[in-house]
Specification:
Number of domains: 2
Shape: globular
Helix content: 40-55%
Strand content: 5-15%
Number of helices: 10
Largest sheet: 8 strands, parallel
Radius of gyration: 24 Å
Number of strands: 8
């Protein structure tokens, strides 16, 4: 049996030391990755609104969102859906129909145009495997809220059979008219719930924006517990300021998220705050806060 030389012994030891060094380094990297991206509990489908991260190209944002643990991205048009789907994400709230926030279903003069617009996007949503599409009441423009309620119900009912056929849910967003969207009509949860009842279809529901409703009426958790069957989607945001949902603002999101989970909700909760710090760090922190 050949006796190993001193040189070969040193080389073996050096190789062994190098191997252990590499293993230690890999272990440290894995631990750092676990710390940066902890495993999510899986009780909430996390999403984020792309417009809040406008400086980040969609493809880069989709990659980062996937790493953080998001399963969807909100408010994307048809040309953008394939980009996020390439990374195993979905467009959790689609846009691409209607006339925007100010002009909506409360104006009967717009009904024909709005119906045609949504009927055109329904087949695209179905083909892409998407479910939710956003819609709006429109601004009051001097109109009485009850009249607007009647008008919205008339216009939306025209679309329900087509929405049902394509497996699409039209989701009207609740927005505040005090700070961000002056004169917007669907600015109270009770008004939106009554509209759902009048439309009378599971294919029309509400987007309950926690930030907006905190400004308009507060009582967030009680409203979620009471009216959750009418809410297809949730948005977050820190108040005041619509910034990070951390300790700098008045809403306590862990309790709000727990209330949502306790209702049996299976839809998406999308972050919709405007980051004041590094945007992806803030997004990662917000997901950790909301992952109850």
């Amino acid at each position: 049996m050949k006796t190993p030389s001193r040189r070969s012994a040193i080389k073996t030891l050096a190789g062994t030391a190098l191997t252990f060094s590499v293993i230690d380094s890999l272990a440290a990297d894995m631990e750092a990755t676990k710390t940066a991206f902890p495993a999510l509990k899986g009780r909430i489908n996390h999403s984020a609104c792309k417009w809040c991260y406008s400086k980040i190209p969609l493809e880069d944002f989709a990659k980062a969102a996937k790493e953080i643990g998001l399963t969807g991205i909100d408010l994307l048009g048809p040309a953008e859906w394939p980009v996020v789907q390439k990374y195993g994400l979905t467009c959790s709230m689609a846009q691409g129909a209607g006339k925007g926030i100010n002009d909506g279903f409360n104006d009967p003069r717009l009904h024909d145009e709005l119906v045609a617009s949504y009927e055109a996007i329904f087949p695209k949503l179905k083909e892409a495997g998407l479910k939710n599409v956003i819609c709006f009441s429109g601004n009051r423009h001097g109109m009485d809220d009850q009249k607007g309620l009647e008008n919205c119900a008339v216009g939306l009912k025209r679309l329900m059979s087509s929405a049902e056929k394509h497996g699409v849910v039209m989701v009207m967003e609740l927005l505040n008219s005090k700070v961000n969207h002056k004169d917007y009509m669907c600015d109270k949860s009770a008004w939106g719930v009554e509209l759902c009842k009048r439309v009378g279809s599971e294919n029309f529901k509400l987007l309950y924006d926690i930030y907006h409703m905190q400004i308009m009426e507060g009582d967030i958790i009680r409203t979620i517990q009471q009216d959750h069957q009418y809410f297809a989607h949730y948005h977050t945001g820190g108040n005041p300021g619509r910034n990070e949902i951390d300790n700098s603002q008045e809403l306590y999101y862990p309790a709000i998220m727990q209330a949502i989970v306790d209702t049996g909700f299976k839809g998406f909760v999308a972050q919709e705050f405007i980051p004041k710090r590094d945007p992806l760090t803030s997004l990662r922190e917000s997901i950790a806060i909301c992952d109850v």
